Amino acid sequence: KENAIQDVLDTLGIKQMNSGAAVGSKWMNTTGEEIKSYSPVDGAYIGSVKAASEAEYEAAITELQTAFKDWRMMPAPKRGEIVRQFGEELRKYKEPLGKLVSYEMGKSYQEGLGEVQEMIDICDFAVGLSRQLHGFTMHSERPNHRMYEQYHPLGIVGIISAFNFPVAVWAWNTALAWICGDVCIWKPSEKVPMCAIACHNIFNKVLEANGLPDGINALVIGGAELGKKMAADKRVPLVSATGSTRMGKSVAETVGARLGKSLLELGGNNAIIVTPTADLKMVVPGAVFGAVGTAGQRCTSTRRLIIHESIYDKVKDALVNAYGQLKIGNPLDENNHVGPLIDQDAVRMYNEAREKVVAEGGKLIVEGGVLEGEGYESGCYVAPAIAEAENHFAIVQHETFAPIVYLMKYSGDVSNAIAMQNDVPQGLSSAIMTNNMREQEEFLAHCGSDCGIANVNIGTSGAEIGGAFGGEKETGGGRESGSDAWKVYMRRQTNTINWGSELPLAQGIKFDL
Ligand code: UN1
Fold this sequence. Notes:
By secondary structure, this protein is α/β, with parallel strands linked by helices. Helices cover 37% and strands 22% of the residues.
């Protein structure tokens, strides 16, 4: 571990051996298994966490229940002020936190900083929102009556997050949940525990400075069983989960069985449609960043390119040429475009996908492969690959979290391309590259893309926090982040007030005594 990294760890309050459970600034004496964190960047051991066990989870929930009673009574704009201060702390820690994200997860330093920027942006958004938790008012059918709707805090929000966005996805959820008056418990991916500890420590500074109860925010680090516990727990009215479709189905079933609420943001199988009028100088960077950014480990990564046959060869050649220029290596070195995959398991899945696409009749036109030698000692670096494939191949229908993009041809009308793009189980992000207004509008119309995100002349990844983020079908249907996503963090109540001196019944019913 280099000195620069040790400085980052010290600044963010990360020790060699860490507790895996905290309620605010109270770190518990955890008794679970030891989780060791290794950097995919250089293979170095970062430190360990003693996982949270059932007892610590229970202690956290009890304290959250108590804190909720105070927190929900604080006026929402005052809660917004707490989130504003959190945004200020994040500004101060942007560089070390961005560096830690890059070092522990493997994405480029620029993308690590970008993730912290998303946290700052959602805090700003939530601050404004804290004065805009609007409900409708409506006219009653009864004389001298008033009707309106209001939103109240829900209670404890459980957050399960994935390794690929180790800090931003938590902030999308907490910043909204807090201004809504909820308290939060976070189970991060056990692949990136240090990022979670760092975030928890930064928020603690705000809690302490304002003398707020610890139980507004808890962290429990551990494996899948902790997530299952949370999903089954009636004291957690909302579980927000980001990750694989397999995990999401399990959360949805368990939360559904107790009629709780879940907010799911699961896998994608995102395509860019490239039409004959597309501007190649936008297609290439859009597609390449989408496919190889974060080493293909975003939910929104570009997995498929659906290219009109008339320009297929041209686009293919331009992409192969661009892939030839990619620099793969240490993500903290800003000259590199692509860093490592998260771990050896991910490398195995990358290799399997490359084998499967060939076995199904596809062709690797940029072969890829695992990189060896100096700078690649962690064994997690792979070269991005391009395969020609068909949409119905099992491997193409499946989300592989790696930098592999599948090229396919369409002929005739754009509706053929849209049909291919929709013909997968997932429905997160989609894009069209076109300068033809009719094609653009068809893609965005009700007969168009069936995804939660549909972009024109932009790639599939890199959404801003201001829009609602999420998708349909196996992506899970949830919406996080901007727009009116806050509503899922609150319970809704319709209120009717009779300010007259008679008691007329609705629907004109007569009930004379
Ligand atoms: C994810 O991969 O879980 O649109 C989130 C994007 C990012 C968020 C991705 N803003 O690519």
